[in-house]
Design brief:
This protein has 185 residues and is α+β, with helices and mostly antiparallel strands. It has 4 helices and 6 strands. One of its GO terms (cellular component) is cytoplasm.
Length: 185
């Protein structure tokens, strides 16, 4: 029973790390990346859809993203979604493809992006701590119902805390790597 709680908790931790990786991929650095726009929500066919389902996204140069819609009629809609996003990039199109020139980030904008990175890392850490609290509550409930002993509960709490510490360290490392990437000129 303790192992079930811990296995479930560790699965939540893996999801949290993956979610952070996904969120950090959308943060703009000075270099073009398909991850900046691929999950951008575009209103298409009556429902919001991620851009990567509506167009092929390529990065032919270090500072250029080329978006080629599968349906040429979607160009204006995709362009509008990019303009309304927080990317700060103005799209240009030639009727068939949309080109996004990724400008060099200013020092001020880099610092803002680092703040965004730190904020997102902290949000995920908060969710991890909430999951830890829930896992420990489950262990206490098992002990309260006399399904496990006090020793098993304490060992389970220790294992939950160790898993939390490993996850927090991994989240911090991901944040530091992204901050370094953002600050690199």
């Amino acid at each position: 029973m303790v192992n079930d709680v811990i296995r479930e908790y560790e699965a939540h931790l893996k999801k949290a790390v993956e979610a952070l990786k996904h969120q950090l991929a959308t943060i703009r650095t000075g270099r073009a990346s398909a991850g900046l726009v691929e999950h951008l929500q575009v209103e298409a066919y009556g429902a919001p859809m991620p851009l990567n389902q509506l167009a092929s996204i390529t990065v032919p140069e270090a500072r250029l993203i080329v978006i080629q819609p599968y349906d040429a009629g979607m160009i204006k809609t995709i362009e509008k979604a990019i303009q309304h996003s927080d990317l700060g990039i103005n799209p240009g199109n030639d009727g068939r493809v949309i080109r996004l020139a990724v400008p060099q980030l200013t020092e001020e904008r880099r610092r803002e992006m680092v703040k965004v990175v730190r904020h997102r890392v902290e949000d995920v850490k908060v969710s991890v701590r909430n999951q830890r609290r829930d896992a420990i509550d489950q262990l206490k409930e098992l002990e309260h119902e006399k399904l496990i002993g006090e020793d098993d509960m304490r060992r389970g709490q220790d294992r939950v805390q160790q898993a939390t510490d490993r996850c927090i360290a991994e989240l911090d490392q991901l944040g530091k790597e992204k901050e370094a990437e953002v600050m690199a000129v």
